[in-house]
Amino acid sequence: MKREELVDEMFKQVDTNNDGVLSRGEFVELVRCLTGEHGVGVSSKIFDEFDANQDGVISRDEALEMIIQFAL
Fold first, then answer.
1. What are phi and psi of 58, to 5 degrees?
2. pLDDT in tens, 17-26
3. Is 38 helix (H, G, I), strand (E, B) or coil?
4. From which domain of life does this come (predicted)?
């Protein structure tokens, strides 16, 4: 599976409401999957780091950067 396909699949799995972005709650699940961390505090720090445009959600492109950095 190619990197972008992997990212798309992971994104779809945690975007439970299928709105095309990850809310903080959905993001917590993604971070848990990637890092094994269960703390909201850790997820919140990572969320703020990767929410590049500070719109309060993580887009697919922002998630791509995070997934590459943490998992691939």
1. -105, 120
2. 999 998 988 8
3. coil
4. Bacteria
Residue 40 pLDDT = 59
Distance, CA of 8 to chain centre: 11
Domains and CATH numbers, the chain: 3-71 (1.10.238.10)
Summary count for the chain: helices (H), strands (E): 4, 0
Q: Are 34 and 67 in contact (CB under 8 A)?
A: yes
Give the integer Cα–Cα distance in Å for 48 and 40: 12
Burial letters for 39-63: b for 16+ Cβ neighbours within 10 Å, e otherwise? eeeebeebbeebbeeeeebbbbebb
pTM across the whole model: 0.62
